[in-house]
């Protein structure tokens, strides 16, 4: 397990250093979309932004932030939890491909790991607020295209899955060497306006 953990960290560090040493172009993509499939009870609105950097080649680095208010809520006439069960994701991703500035449409692929944070708050103060932080992974891809050197559109679909500790009964991380795939997952589809700088 320790060797696998060190291998993953070394590979991520190598990719990040390679992307950072090349001439970097910045990219910010505010997006809006929906979550679906997996553990979603109903399709839920999600919004957020991605901040990325790409060099001369096809490899880049991106931070993806998504917030899905009311992610876990279900329709219930007796106990309304509307807006009280939220999911936040913050992922560091390696990207491959994408459209060059100045025009054209091109597919891209992305994958990485980060934080999945679920928060529950009581609308009537019947119980204490609860928060759970888990490590998670995401993979996906989509299409990006630019109208000119600085403005374009990007659409993508991603799969998110939690990672849980193999030794802990409560699911909280006890030993970072004991990662295993968790049972919480969902899909996300988003469309955003891309600004290159």
Average pLDDT across residues?
A: 77
- Name the shape in a single word: elongated
Report Rg. Answer: 18 Å
**Count of helices?**
1
Provide the descriptors you would attach to this structure in a database record.
single chain, Porin, 197 residues, 8-stranded antiparallel beta barrel, 10% helix, mainly beta
Overall description:
It is built from one helix and eight strands; from the N terminus they run H-E-E-E-E-E-E-E-E. The protein is mainly beta and 197 residues long. The chain is elongated, with a radius of gyration of 18 Å. Strand 6 (130-146) and strand 7 (151-165) form a beta hairpin. It has one helix at 2-21; strands at 25-36, 44-54, 59-68, 85-97, 105-120, 130-146, 151-165, 179-196. The protein has one domain: Porin, CATH 2.40.160.20.
SSE order and pairing:
Elements: H1 2-21, E1 25-36, E2 44-54, E3 59-68, E4 85-97, E5 105-120, E6 130-146, E7 151-165, E8 179-196
Antiparallel strand pairs: 1-2, 1-8, 2-3, 3-4, 4-5, 5-6, 6-7, 7-8
Write a brief structural summary.
The chain is mainly β.
């Amino acid at each position: 397990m320790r060797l696998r953990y060190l291998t993953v960290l070394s590979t991520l560090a190598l990719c990040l250093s390679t992307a950072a040493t090349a001439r970097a172009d910045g990219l910010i993509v505010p997006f809006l979309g929906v979550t679906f499939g997996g553990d979603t009870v109903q399709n839920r609105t999600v919004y957020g932004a991605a901040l990325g950097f790409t060099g001369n080649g096809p490899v880049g680095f991106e931070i993806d932030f998504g917030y899905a208010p009311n992610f876990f809520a279900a329709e219930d006439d007796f106990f309304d939890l509307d807006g009280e069960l939220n999911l936040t994701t913050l992922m560091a991703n390696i990207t491959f491909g994408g459209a060059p500035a100045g025009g054209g449409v091109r597919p891209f692929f992305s994958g990485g790991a980060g934080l999945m944070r679920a928060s529950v708050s009581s609308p009537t103060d019947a119980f204490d607020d609860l928060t759970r932080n888990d490590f998670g992974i995401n993979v996906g891809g989509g299409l990006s295209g630019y109208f000119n050197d600085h403005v374009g559109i990007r659409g993508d679909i991603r799969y998110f899955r939690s990672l849980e500790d193999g030794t802990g009964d409560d699911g909280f991380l006890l030993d970072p060497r004991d990662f295993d795939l968790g049972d919480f997952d969902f899909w996300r589809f988003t469309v955003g306006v891309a600004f290159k700088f």
